[in-house]
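anyone seen this seq b4? input:
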Amino acid sequence: MDSEARTPTVQICRTCGGGAPIDVHFCPQCTRILTLGRHGDYFAFLGVPRKLNLDLVDLEQRFRTMSRQFHPDYFHNASLAERRASLEHSSYLNDAYRTLKHPIDRIEYLLSLESADRQSARGASGGQEVPASLLEEVFALNEELDEVRDLKSSGAPEEDWKSRLEQARKPIDEKQAQHEAELRELSTRWDALADDAAVSERRSVLEALRDRMLERNYISNLLAGIEKEMAQIL
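predicted toks r here
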């Protein structure tokens, strides 16, 4: 993380005018809930490190505790500003928990915060260009699908083309398993570097994570297309 990301930032309580650290949810002076405002990120909001291997039991406990703290029922008789703040906090908390409890969503979110171009992996993966590392598998798959279609249309026995159709996706499944293993390894590397390593070391891991995520998302879309193709052929 860049040094400026660690600089403490003060937010102002609209009730008493006192100052509070950016990731504190209640004013230290008057104890009223603070406006959501500029609050850092999902990791900071939940009070967990910006890492990829999180303790999910701890994460859930934090979520449940904060859910009770921010629940609108506790602010039924509070001021309009406090009621609005409780709703904002509750909504943001739900988004943060939904994102951080899933490993892939967690990686995508980290990339949106940390990557060099500040572009999330999910947003960047919308293009149709085949990642270079998948060219061979995609080319072979398309050839096989064309042959299966020809067999089917020529009236070949079902067992002749159905087994080929099932075999056609195996290399893609294997590639997906490989990417899952690489993402786990890169996540561990990021966690080891996240606190104290040089920016260049962290950036290298982030770029590798981004590349694996682009490829993973392409593979997921490809497998979904195969399922659709299989349904049409069968």
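The longest strand covers residues 10-12. The two ends are 51 Å apart (CA to CA). kinda curious what u guys think
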